[in-house]
Amino acid sequence: METRKTKLGADHPDTLSSMADLAFTWKSQGRHANALALMEDCTQAQWRILGQKHPETLSSLATVAKWSS
């Protein structure tokens, strides 16, 4: 994710995908709080960059809701 941020920029769609991937990795490693925080950041960026109705934004919103419950 850091490499993509450096090369592509923090708001590039590929960087946002890497953020979501890392959040899922952390979740699978039991790092629930870190995963949720990163997914929330990712979702906010996706909302701003991709729009509120973009499929990736909607998927991330659903993930945040699921992980928060």
Per DSSP E runs of 2 or more residues, the count of β-strands stands at 0
Q: Please indicate the percent range of residues in DSSP E strands (runs of 2 or more).
A: under 5%
Order of helices and strands: HHHH
Mean pLDDT: 94
Distance from N terminus to C terminus (CA atoms, Å) equals: 26 Å
The helix/strand class is mainly alpha
Give the biggest sheet: none
State the helical fraction. Answer: over 70%
Radius of gyration, in angstroms, nearest whole number: 11 Å
Shape annotation: flat
Structure annotation, total helices: 4
Poorly predicted runs are none
Describe it for me?
The protein is mainly α. The chain has four helices and no strands. It has helices at 2-8, 13-28, 32-49, 55-68.
How would you concisely characterize the structure shown here?
This protein is mainly alpha-helical and 69 residues long. It has 4 helices and no strands. Pfam families: TPR_10.
Secondary structure elements and pairings:
Layout: H1 2-8, H2 13-28, H3 32-49, H4 55-68
Helix pairs in contact: 2-3, 3-4
